[in-house]
Amino acid sequence: RKEVEQDPGPFNVPEGATVAFNCTYSNSASQSFFWYRQDCRKEPKLLMSVYSSGNEDGRFTAQLNRASQYISLLIRDSKLSDSATYLCVVTALFSGGYNKLIFGAGTRLAVHP
Amino acid sequence: NAGVTQTPKFQVLKTGQSMTLQCAQDMNHNSMYWYRQDPGMGLRLIYYSASEGTTDKGEVPNGYNVSRLNKREFSLRLESAAPSQTSVYFCASKGQGRYGSYGYTFGSGTRLTVV
User: What is the predicted pLDDT for the residue at A94?
Assistant: First the structure.
């Protein structure tokens, strides 16, 4: 079983739609959670952190359910420019005590006119 | 522009050849990382360096070596390339991101093909 699992998609939605991505993680000791965005053939970029209380950044809302080990990302009023792959990322500890990021394989979003 | 710079952007190697991927950051970050990304899989950690002078293995270190030359630079070496090492390689450094959380900054990647 992968440590971080995501639906690979693609999600094909029209402009203006609301779309939700889900993610589950297996390590109950994970402390920090993120959504990254990756455009085609580009590097991943941090979109937002995810907090237990839920957090919002403009059209983007992230939620965390620690009990279910489940993370979500909601995008409202989708724009063409939102087309990308969205990576769910959690932290884990190395044996030396340092944090590392564990990446999901990503969910691809395609927004069409 | 401040950030993480990787070279080269593209490379084709023959099986058995060696090469070094270079990475430099100008953000005064302590931690640096090398990841590989393959289709259908998440980024996987090859090696990391928590600070200048230290390096440690990640999830998939076999076939690779690294050097943390100074605080800015962290290089990845393939001593004898194999087709299984065909991948996209990303270097990253860790600093303070938005929301007060630590955020990783990635380089633009190196697309490596081993034939």
Answer: 67
